[in-house]
């Protein structure tokens, strides 16, 4: 069984990482602290896949998106095997995220 991936940060990098893992059949849990970003991440990833389908007809956005769950908090990360952090490059922000992950 493939590991379950947790991704923190749903900006450009986080969405790309989530899409790539999901494309290869991994279950992905994606979290962003900005509700506006989190609410549109699936539609952004779907749009990205549709653009890539112009060059790779084998891609199926429904199958890929089915592998991605958008989390509301760090509690959902209890079931992941490892975490990829993609937040802003600020030391205090990163420390805060790691602390929250560790507390759950």
UniProtKB/TrEMBL annotation:
<dbReference type="GO" id="GO:0070403">
    <property type="term" value="F:NAD+ binding"/>
</dbReference>
<dbReference type="GO" id="GO:0016491">
    <property type="term" value="F:oxidoreductase activity"/>
</dbReference>
<feature type="domain" description="3-hydroxyacyl-CoA dehydrogenase NAD binding">
    <location>
        <begin position="4"/>
        <end position="103"/>
    </location>
</feature>
<dbReference type="InterPro" id="IPR006176">
    <property type="entry name" value="3-OHacyl-CoA_DH_NAD-bd"/>
</dbReference>
<dbReference type="Pfam" id="PF02737">
    <property type="entry name" value="3HCDH_N"/>
</dbReference>
<dbReference type="InterPro" id="IPR036291">
    <property type="entry name" value="NAD(P)-bd_dom_sf"/>
</dbReference>
<protein>
    <submittedName>
        <fullName>Putative 3-hydroxybutyryl-CoA dehydrogenase</fullName>
    </submittedName>
</protein>
<dbReference type="GO" id="GO:0006631">
    <property type="term" value="P:fatty acid metabolic process"/>
</dbReference>
<comment type="similarity">
    <text>Belongs to the 3-hydroxyacyl-CoA dehydrogenase family.</text>
</comment>
